[in-house]
Prior knowledge:
Elements: E1 2-5, H1 14-23, E2 28-32, H2 36-42, H3 47-68, E3 72-79, H4 80-85, H5 88-107, H6 109-112, E4 114-119, H7 127-139, E5 145-153, H8 155-168, H9 176-182, E6 193-196, E7 215-219, H10 228-239
Helix pairs in contact: 1-10, 2-3, 3-5, 5-7, 8-9
Amino acid sequence: xxxxxKHQNKALTVEEQMKIVSECSLNHIAFIxxxxxxxxxxxxxxxxxxxxxxxxxxxxxxxxCGDLGIKTVTVxxxxxENLKLRPQKEIAALMRILDSYIAEAEADxxxxxxxxxxxxxxxxxxxxMAEKCRHLANITExxxxxxxxxxxxGGRAEIARxxxxxxxxxxxxxxxxxxxxxxxxxxxxxxxxxxxxxxxERLSNFLLWQCAYAEFYFTDTLWPDFDDDALALAIESFGxxxxxxxxxx
Length: 249
């Protein structure tokens, strides 16, 4: 079911959101964080300023999700297409933001209790950045909450990679469970809710395998402006869904 929020209503309280998260089994929420560039342009700022503001929104929303009891969060931070097609100045700014965030996450790992898993070909980010990503993943693997960061990621490439890995192992009669086990997200449940900001209504090659029974929520809010109330509206929408998984209720 696809839902598009056009009007701002009174946001649910924290307690009401936590009730939905618990009773409706909102275990995994994924975000397509769109609109950083448009936010910056609307304020006559360079696109890099939008990414900085968007990174701040990302930090806050991840923390908020944890406070509400959502155990897994996935964010689409950088697609393979972004890495290839965006201006190098913009990519360099994104890498600086990522580098700063990784350092911050490493320093605060005990306090935040977040396990970091990187989805995508991190080697394409350069050897130094790839090593930092792998190190953070290794030192947080025992943490309770999960944050999947999709970097240099594409859903089709992920499926092809999974099939290739199975083939290299000699698996010929490939099942859905086999493919799921080779996905970058093999340690996480499939997303229950996928949120896309900035008015676009497409997946853009994000979690194509995992989204089979996800609910979708689209909002015109630009990602840098996505705040507690915006998240509450997405959760409220999810709480009204009737998830049947092909059955009859």
